[in-house]
Automatic annotation (TrEMBL):
This is Beta-mannosidase. One of its GO terms (molecular function) is beta-mannosidase activity. It comes from Lepidothrix coronata. SUPFAM superfamilies: (Trans)glycosidases, beta-Galactosidase/glucuronidase domain. InterPro entries: Beta-gal/glucu_dom_sf, Beta-mannosidase_GH2, Beta-mannosidase_Ig, GH, Glyco_hydro_2_cat, Ig-like_fold, Mannosidase_ig.
Length: 568
């Protein structure tokens, strides 16, 4: 008797990777059609959940994957620099609806192709495809991470005369062996040789494209830590953004467990040692410095905590800007670019307690970015951006039906909880599975309409509201850097906590507008319904979902409330 057979689950789905001409644009599309519908992939990249795989339990995986789903993600890329995940990982993804872009485990390197090595790769790939192909969560096999790009842009300084040999090795490994095995074993899902790639165009160019980052084909990886990340013009209008991101530091409560008092400074040996990305700590401060005053306090621990907070605010706001740009680019072609159909930021989870691009800390605690992701990946979202002095708002929807909605736009001065002007545009149509312009006004008109406003003294918030309770998150648009904001007053934040069934209700009060309100309950495991938000109303109700037993008293005693003006 085979018990595992008796407990197996059946799921159905189809998947196609659509690469076809787009009217008005050179190149080819690159998107997934799932069960006959084009689907915008929203999510992140998965790395190993621990340096020691035997410490990774079913509960570890479930918590991380559930956190992805709770942040409105529908996809993860299992990165080729990590491990083939255990069966339970894919079981959970099948169950909760996370689609997997599965890399084979080859990354950022040139691999040999002698017979012994190839035999070992063939055995491994055959085993993994047979083990995993029954999981409907997997929607794509992908040969490697960044090795097409590494050859085409010569990361490893290969002398020109030897280039052909490395291309031959590349074809031998990924095309003649890995691809052959995949095609023999599993024709139910697409295969690409690398990420980033130009897809069919790369194939046409002999599998190593001249520029695998071409925005008109395939997927792209994009990182830039030098330019101002609030400025959307720096981002590539790609067909599919499969890697992009910014670093931040994990919470003090996470770091505290692996450090001692002499480590608690941004420039300590500990802080340098934990940073494994060259110049990472400096780059974070540079991005923070574009829009915020850097902490100047004389208490070193307070200064460290303020810096941690600001790196998390920066990471959340930068990744929000970039992701919203990709989502808003899904239905249009501008100067030949667009039809973006995926946004998978780098990276979901952490392998240890350290600064990184992750939105979930080691142990599972949500960084501010993960709360932002829950909003910027919401099924219905208004997105604002400015182009040449004009404010545009797009309605972005993953819903399967067209919606008739009301767009509410509210302007506040930083100094008052009373709005200076509000506007409700009714009968706004946001079409199913698309991003459409729904509002346009020059910034100077907005400032004039809302008397007494300047770019520095006012802030815009907006949301979409429908009948029968449909509502988008409230989004914000800053008219200037927050370090230049005029009129912000230090607020008095307070919270009352009560228990309701299995959750805890935090009623938060503020005496003034408070940007980036962070609620932190230290090492108590769980997550809030929202965090890091801009508070423009006196009161906000936030739910805490505990992951282990706790109490009102414990939560009250652990709670720290921080907003921007608490940074000194
Ligand atoms: C964004 O960057 C572009 C190109 O560098 C520049 O022209 C524009 O002024 C920038 N916008 C803002 C708001 O800084
Ligand atoms: C950092 O480590 C070096 C080498 O171990 C040591 O000489 C130095 O004093 C340390 N610096 C601090 C600030 O602890
Ligand atoms: C604009 O400022 C003036 C002077 O401070 C004030 O009297 C007036 O009420 C303000 N108008 C609005 C719409 O806030």
């Amino acid at each position: 008797l085979n018990l595992s057979f008796m407990s197996s689950q059946a799921y159905f789905r189809t998947v196609e990777l659509v690469q076809e001409p787009i009217p008005g644009s050179p190149g080819l599309s690159f998107y997934f059609r799932i069960n006959g519908r084009p689907i915008f992939l929203k999510g992140s990249n998965w790395i190993p959940a621990d340096s020691f795989q035997d410490r990774v339990t079913y509960d570890t995986l479930r918590l991380l994957l559930k956190s992805a789903a709770d942040a409105n993600m529908n996809a993860l890329r299992v990165w080729g620099g990590g491990v083939y995940e255990q069966d339970e990982f894919y079981d959970i993804c099948d169950e909760i609806g996370i689609m997997i872009w599965q890399d084979f485990m080859f990354a950022c390197a040139l691999y040999p192709t002698d017979q012994n090595y190839l035999a070992s790769v063939r055995a491994e790939v055959l085993h993994q495809v047979r083990r995993l192909k029954s999981h409907p969560s997997i929607i794509l096999w992908s040969g490697n991470n960044e090795n097409e790009a590494a050859i085409s842009t010569n990361w490893f300084s290969i002398p020109h005369a030897e280039r052909e040999r490395y291309i031959r090795d590349y074809l031998m490994l990924y095309v003649k062996n890995i691809r052959e095995i995949v095609l023999n074993e599993d024709r139910s899902r697409p295969f690409i040789a690398s990420s980033p790639t130009n897809g069919l165009e790369s194939v046409k160019e002999g599998w190593v494209s001249q520029n695998p980052y071409d925005t008109h084909y395939g997927d792209t990886h994009f990182y830039d830590y030098n330019n101002d990340c609030w400025n959307w013009t720096m981002y590539p209008k790609t067909r599919f953004a499969s890697e992009y991101g910014f670093q931040s530091w994990p919470s003090f409560s996470t770091i505290e467990k692996v450090s001692s008092a002499e480590d608690w400074s941004y420039v300590s040996n500990f802080s340098l040692h934990r940073q494994h990305h060259d110049s990472g700590n400096v780059q974070m401060l540079q991005e923070v410095g574009y829009h915020f005053k850097l902490p100047q306090g004389t208490d070193p621990v307070k200064r460290f905590k303020d810096t941690i907070y600001l790196t998390q605010v920066m990471q959340a706001q930068c990744t929000k800007t970039e992701t919203e740009f990709y989502r808003a680019s899904q239905s249009e072609i501008i100067r030949g670019e667009g039809h973006t159909m995926g946004a998978l930021y780098w990276q979901l989870n952490d392998i240890w307690q350290a600064p990184s691009w992750a939105s979930l800390e080691y142990g599972g605690k949500w960084k501010l970015l993960h709360y932002f992701a829950r909003n910027f990946f919401a099924p219905l979202l208004p997105v604002a951006y400015e182009d040449q002095g004009v404010l545009y708002i797009y309605g972005v929807s993953d819903l399967h039906g067209d919606q008739k909605l009301t767009l509410r736009v509210v302007v506040h001065t930083w100094g008052s909880l009373e709005p200076v002007c509000t506007l409700a545009k009714e009968g706004v149509i946001v079409k199913a599975q698309s991003a459409v312009p729904i509002y346009k006004e020059s910034i100077s008109d907005v400032l004039e309409r809302c008397r007494n406003c300047t770019r520095k003294s006012c802030v815009i918030t907006f949301c979409l509201v429908g009948e029968d309770g449909l509502q988008s998150p409230t989004n914000h648009f800053f008219l200037s850097s927050l370090k230049d904001a005029v009129g912000l007053e230090k607020t008095q934040l307070s919270a009352s906590v009560s228990k309701q069934d299995d959750t805890y209700i935090f009623v938060l009060q503020t005496t003034a507008i408070a940007p980036f309100v962070s609620m932190d309950v230290g090492s108590i495991k769980g997550r809030f319904s929202d965090n890091g938000f801009l508070m423009t109303e006196k009161k906000k109700v936030v739910v805490f979902y505990p992951w282990e037993p706790t109490s009102v008293e414990e939560l009250e005693n652990s709670l720290t409330l921080t907003s921007l003006l608490d940074v000194v």
